[in-house]
Amino acid sequence: METPSDRHAYPAHWEADVVLRDGGTARIRPITTEDAERLTSFYEQVSDESKYYRFFAPYPRLSDKDVHRFTHHDYVDRVGLAATVGGEFIATVRYDRIDATGRPASTPADEAEVAFLVQDAHQGRGVASALLEHVAAVARERGIRRFAAEVLPANTKMIKVFTDAGYTQKRSFEDGVVRLEFDLEPTEASLAVQRAREQRAEARSVQRLLAPGSVAVIGVGRTPGGVGRSVLDNLKDAGFTGRLYAVNKAFPEDLTEIDGVPAHRCVRDIDPADQVDLAVVAVPAPHVPDVVAECGERGVQGLIVVSAGYAESGAEGRERQRALVRQARTYGMRIVGPNAFGVVNTSSDVRLNASLAPEMPRPGRIGLFAQSGAIGIALLARLHRRGGGVTGATGISTFVSAGNRADVSGNDVLQYWYDDPDTDVALMYLESIGNPRKFTRLARRAAEAKPLVVVQGARHSGIAPTGHAVRATRLPYATVSALLRQAGVIRVETITELVDTGLLLARQPLPAGPRVAILGNSESLGLLTYDVCLSEGLRPKPPRDLTTAASAADFRAALEEALADDKTDSVVVTAMPAVGEGPTEDAELAAALSAAAATAPTKPVLVVHVELGGLAEALSAAASTGPNAPDAPDSQPPRPVPASAETSEDTPRLIPAYPAAERAVRALAEVVKYAQWRRDAAEPGKVPEYDGVDEAAAAALITELLAKEDDPRGVELVPEDARALLSHYGVSVRETLPAPDADHAVGAAHTLGYPVALKTTAPHLRHRADLGGVRLDLADETDLRRAYEELTEQLGGPAELRPVVQSMAPRGVDTVVRAVIDPAAGAVLSFGLAGAASELLGDTAHRLIPVTDQDAQGIIRSIKTAPILFGWRGAAPVDTPALEELLQRVSRLVDDHPEVVGVALEPVVVAPYGLTVLGASVRLAPPPARDDLGPRTLPVAY
User: Which residue in 111, 118, 112 sits closest to 96, CA to CA?
Assistant: First the structure.
């Protein structure tokens, strides 16, 4: 609750770093009384035209009274925010609460007048749009539901900021002024606008790091060796197309170049006419702050910090890392690292190897992100080399190894890959996911355009890797993994599977289904492949044995026949070497398989070979990786590149070869599941509207209940309040009456009507019928008194057991429905059958909230014990449509009210007709000040 004493408290949680349209960063924070000089200086740099648009009259300077008014706020009815770069204002926004007549007002007035001013040099960078998102969030937090703005008709830029925001608005024209009024409640359109701006800005910030026009390497030694010199040599050897600079404060003053690269003692010494886009920092950690300050003052756009000695080294290093990020963002720069391996861009227009990789990877269409430098090296080697694993040369488009990922993370790189025309497949090695909620959202959108394959390391250690600061999650790894799979992420367990699956996706189209044809010259290898297909959930046909005498022509004919079959979605070819075969035979077989595959360009083909050294290389040589996507028109951003299922008939493709059937089939099974997800995502489900939902009444009750509690951790509602809240969303909980003694139990039974159940509600016995704490079908008073006596004699006194009486529900299947707000993953709905067996086996399904009709159907059917709900062993099927409706009502409650942080319905007895909720608990807590539906913001510098 807001009190007079906190109306003037500085709201530190409003501070945020944001990425602007051009990829630079700015800091948004509340304006304070100490900002008078900054405000005056800022106003002096604004053009007369912009001042006129702000005040509707010539206003050359601010008076002392103006400065006082614009720097003194109560942060409730009068709020001012500033966007800063380098500590100086570049834009401001303020709102003043007004009443229906337009005069200054206080709560409960819910309208405010808003006005912006952006320095001319920073107009067009999206500063006003970012400020609007943040000031709208602030206003909603303070109980303001509507903004009003008056704008001169000639101020088209500001009118566009308001109209493009996506809010529901009204527009009028009076006395030569355009008046705009818009509701601040987020709409589908406003969220879409916000997400699109976020994607463009973050993608642009990564592009500035991956496609710089010039690079300065700071910390270059005069002699070969050392980190800085190695990075410089790698940049040169890769043929970087831009300008290079070698920087080291220890250089002699008369040193002008290092191996032909201009040498300078300081970044500031570089010719001011030459823009320095990217700096690679390879100096000891204590010297990094000075380097960052020099780069910021020089206008460098981004940093790659390969220096170690940060959060991976302990508490002191963690604080050093926080300071590094804060300092860099002050100057509008983004950071890869610290403790980073570097970045690579193989585009012929860039050829950037700003990393410790001694060899430039081959160009290709796979994007690669690794948090670990060691794993990054291993992945680059596997994708680069011939021989071993999945053989054949395969290249990458871009590579980012983020180290401690204090700033640029996998989320940012995903934003870049989403519409990168040079990337068809994204591979990610993650040791931690700093913001799973955002990652899931971005992954779902990216996966609709191109495959995303992820392997997560350190997943069973229970702690984040050294140097990684992440939000704590209460969800087990399996749950987070399941949620990401629902978002279209292809989850694999090992680096080998990451490469196997990625290469199949890069080389072959998506299959139309799980039907697999198997053919080859080894009956045993074919049968092994068949067995693996079954175990991986595929639908294989009986293997076709071509015998060991099969020629290349026989393979081609058999493959063409299999591909022509309408009942085949993909083909696995098994090849066993014959005695005396050599390179000529390998090349003939490779050419035959490639020619046959070309007859069905929409069906994937894989090869399983056993120690057939030359075949894999021959398959790689038998076709090229295909042409690059055509350039998009300059007038619009490039569209996401479709996955390889769209491969045209005239596009040659590589056939991946695997040394083991298990590896080939597992990769295929993952691709089949992803292809099915793509088809399902093309027809997304809906969140239906149900009768009996009173959102306003629920909100009022929540406010009332929270007002009674001072604990910021929240409150567990008593059963009566939980039933009342759930009833506002059409969820009826069967009433229970307390039974502190046998007489009260009998009285409760008379009130409810026989037959009844007698249950304990003690925490250690609740929902544990197997421990004897429940007596069912008590038909009369005699049965009830006997059961009460047995219960209290066997398990304890009434004060300990807390017995209750409840009327019997129709027989059915006992299930459990839960919803929680996880600090990392967000709102999650869970479902499973009740009982110890389901808990022990972990047979629970999960979906992210809000749950659609398709999600509700899927969550019920995805548990292993689902057959029990559908008439297993002759039992009557239960009312699953009623169960789906219940799941969606609970989802809607949690989605509508962020204060609802936990719901548990246990048990929910689902009968052949209808269902009964026998127990319910609800937990409330104050809503978070910011969530993933809030304004765009960069993660806090940990």
Answer: 112
Distance CA 646, CA 256 (A): 53
Instruction: Give the number of other CB atoms < 10 A from CB of residue 852.
Output: 16
Cα distance between residue 381 and residue 379, in whole Å? 5
Q: Are 618 and 590 in contact (CB under 8 A)?
A: yes
Given a cut of 60, whether residue 535 has pLDDT beyond it is yes
Residue 259 in contact with residue 221, Cβ under 8 Å?
A: no
Residue 462 pLDDT > 60: no
User: Which tokens in the block code for residue 487?
Assistant: 């978002």
Q: Which residue has the higher pLDDT, 485 or 384?
A: 485
Chain segment 840-869, per-residue pLDDT in tens: 888 999 998 889 999 999 999 999 999 999
Q: DSSP code of 646?
A: G
Percent of the chain residues topping a pLDDT of 70:
89
Q: How far apart are CA 853 and CA 856, in angstroms?
A: 5
Mean pLDDT of 153-182: 89
**37/469 Cα distance (integer angstroms):** 36
How many of the other CB atoms lie within 10 Å of CB of 739?
27
Q: Are 440 and 483 in contact (CB under 8 A)?
A: yes
Residue 45: both structure tokens together: 């740099």
Residue, of 648 and 45, whose pLDDT is higher: 45
Question: Cis bond leading into 755, ω under 30°?
Answer: yes
- How far is it, in rounded angstroms, from Cα 544 to Cα 523? 8
Give, for 381, the enclosing helix (H) or strand (E). helix 373-384
- Crossing angle of helices 436-447 and 410-418, in 10° steps, is 20
CB-CB contact of 234 with 355 (8 Å): yes
- Closest by CA position to 583, among listed 619, 541, 543: 619
Q: How far apart are CA 648 and CA 595, in angstroms?
A: 15
d(CA 24, CA 14): 20
Task: Give pLDDT tens digits for 737-748.
Answer: 999 999 999 999
Residue 353 corresponds to which tokens in the numbers above?
């190897």
Task: In whole angstroms, give the CA distance from residue 940 to residue 942.
Answer: 6
Cα Rg of the chain (Å, integer) = 32
Mean pLDDT for 384-394 is 48
Alpha helices in 492-576 (DSSP H): 495-507, 523-535, 552-564
Among all chains, which residue has been given the structure tokens 């000639």?
Answer: 154
**Cα(61)–Cα(64) distance, integer angstroms:** 10
Give yes or no for a contact between 197 and 935, defined as CB atoms under 8 angstroms apart.
no
Task: Report the distance separating Cα 382 and Cα 374, nearest Å.
Answer: 13
Give the position of tokens 């040099």.
Answer: 121
Q: Residue 393 corresponds to which tokens in the numbers above?
A: 């040369």
- Beta strand residue intervals within 35-103, DSSP E: 78-85, 88-98
Query: What backbone phi and psi angles, to 5 degrees, belong to 557?
Result: -65, -45
Q: How confident is the model at residue 621 (pLDDT cuts 50, 70, 90)?
A: low
The amino acid sitting at 447 is A
What pLDDT digit, counting tens, does each position of 879-904 carry? 999 999 999 999 999 999 989 999 99
Per DSSP, 61 falls in state S
Residue 632 CB neighbour total at 10 angstroms = 12
User: In angstroms, how far is the first alpha carbon of the chain from the final one?
Assistant: 29
Partner residues linked to 716 by β-bridges: 923
> How does DSSP classify residue 693?
B
User: What does the alpha-carbon distance between residue 745 and residue 525 come to, in Å, rounded to a whole number?
Assistant: 69
Report, as an integer, the average pLDDT of 265-293: 95
More confident residue, 89 or 433: 89
> Nearest-5° angle of CA 734, CA 735, CA 738?
140
603 residue type, one letter: K
878's tokens: 């239960």
Whether the per-residue pLDDT at 629 is higher than 60: the answer is: no
Residue-level pLDDT at 618: 65
Tell me the C-alpha distance between 393 and 601, whole Å: 21
With bands split at pLDDT 50, 70 and 90, how would you rate the model's confidence at 835?
confident
